[in-house]
Structures are given as structure tokens and as C-alpha cells.
Amino acid sequence: MKSEVLAVEGWRKVVHFTDESAGLSAIIAVHDDTLGPGCGGCRIYPYPSFEAGLEDVKNLSRGMTYKNAMGDIPFGGGKAVIFADPKKDKTPEMLKAFARAVDSLEGLYYTAEDSGVTEADLGVIRSVTNYAAGMENKGVGGNPSPFTARGIWRGMQAAARKKLGVDTLKGLTVSILGVGAVGMGLARLIHEEGGELVVADVNQEAVKEAMTRFGAETVTPEDAVALDVDIFAPCAFGGSINAESLPRLKAQIVAGAANNQLKTPDMDQALKDKGVLYCPDYVINGAGVISIGLEILGKWTTEEMNKRIDNIGVRLTDIFNRAEAENAPTGAIADKMALEIIARGRKAA
Question: Where do the structural domains in the chain lie, given as residue ranges?
């Protein structure tokens, strides 16, 4: 195993790990550890370049700093990426090598599930290191996707109350871009509440499943953002709100599971100027990592988890109201609130 510490300004620690015999090339990034060790998932993805993977893990780990702060768990921002195709390249040897990399940081970073990593994969990782979470054990913790989906749903309800003046998603139409584990779970909750669905995904099997189970209509991924719907839910990879897609956006609310939904920071103000209510991604999609955090702390219970999920809607309402009072975009207000929490933690240290 070879490791190289990368000099990245503003990050606590960024390390590139390689193990040729195991086929591993990975970056672990810890953005901030003021509130506690970095905590965030591992993404396995065939990035086109090293620079693309580095940029992604930087953005994701920074987002985790804010997400964990707003989720009220004592962890900082961390994330990992593995340069590989999860369908072709992933092996137990690769996962074990990654686990050794995590272990070498001696508790600075806890890993968990993200795109390309399954709960079974985490079992392999956990066989090597204790610094991994997200595995169900006697009804405690487990795959965070269902919790994330429920948190998005609660956030949507809060946004609908604020923007549309309704207490339910019944009768509203939601366009979901990405019906993977979280997107499909979200679709089920919206359908059960009486909402109408339009779904889009490159995975046609997932699209067919949503059509069969929930009566969803379907469009191409490129057109999902442009539909005349009440809510647009980006639940795939980030950057779906950008200078090209914004003029096409017709929804009054953006509320989804994807990380880094805004391709550039100026999209936050642009959404406000367009009259669109944006649910800051790292707040609305925080339930998964809250579950991970409670699992690590040994404080996970169904009652506590449900309370935390319900509080996502409360937290978003606070953001909406403060943004309105300060005439500021919601993303900027969420950042401000997260930084206030981190500052209090730094002062208390």
C-alpha cells in the first residue's frame, strides 16, 4: 500500500492511496474535524481523470462538513472515492485494501455507503477496520437509503407548505431524476401520499419498475428538469441545476437527494431570482448520515431516528423563514447556519 498526502488548502487531510496488487486507487478527504472525526460515504466510480475524482471528493467532503453540522451529529466532513467501475472492477481484495487505507488514518475518518458500495461491501470493509458503519445489526442502523428517502419526503412537505401553502403532496406532481435506491424509496412515499410522478433514469429497468409500481410517467433524463411540475427532485449525480438547465426549469420547488445539486454557487441566487424555493441539498438529504452517526455513537433507536428525520422539515422551515427575513438565497442561509454551529464547536473546544 502506498499513500501520498495531497496539499489541498482548507482541508484537514487529503490522502491518495494505491495498492496495485488489489487494483486500488482511492482518495480519502477529511475537510474539517472541528465537531469530530470526518464521516461520509465511499463512492466507487470510473472517473475520467484523477483530477475529476479529486474535485468530486473535495466537493463531497466539504458538503459533509455542513451536512453533519446541520444534522446535529458530532462529526466533521469526510468522503472517499475509489477510481473503478463498480460493476466490473470491484473485488473483495480492493475493498479490503480500501479498509486498510481507512484504518491507517486511525479514526480520523469513518466510511459508509455511497454510489457503487453496498451493505455487503461494507461488511467486507468492516472485517478489516472498525471505522465503517451502515450495516444493519439486530434492527439497528443499516442501509441509509430508506432513511434518506424519508428525509427528502419530509423536506418536500415542508417546502410545499412554505411555497404552495398546502399540507400534503397529494395532487402535486414531482419529477424525479434518478430512481436508484433513494429515488425509488422517495417515489414510493410520494405515491402513497397521493402525489403524481414523472421519473427519469439511464437505468431503464428502474424506470420500468417505477412505472409498474407507482403508475409513473417517464421522460428522458435530459428533459426531467424542464417539465411543468410542482417539484423537481434531483436524485442522481450533482450539477443538475446549472446555467443551461435553469432557464428550462418550471418547477416551483427543487428538493432532491443528490449531493452538490447546484453546479456553480451562483445558482443559489439564480434560483431565488427565478422564484424557485431550493431545499439545500445537504440539509434535506441528511437523514442517511444521521443514521450512520447514531450507529457509530451507539445511540441508534427507531424512535430517535424518526425524530431526527421529522426534524429535517423543521430545520428547512427555519432556513426558509430566515432566508425570507434576510432576503437571501436558502443555500447561503444554510451555509451560514452550519458555519455558526461549527464556530460554536470550535469555541467550546
Answer: 2-67+75-126, 145-286+315-338
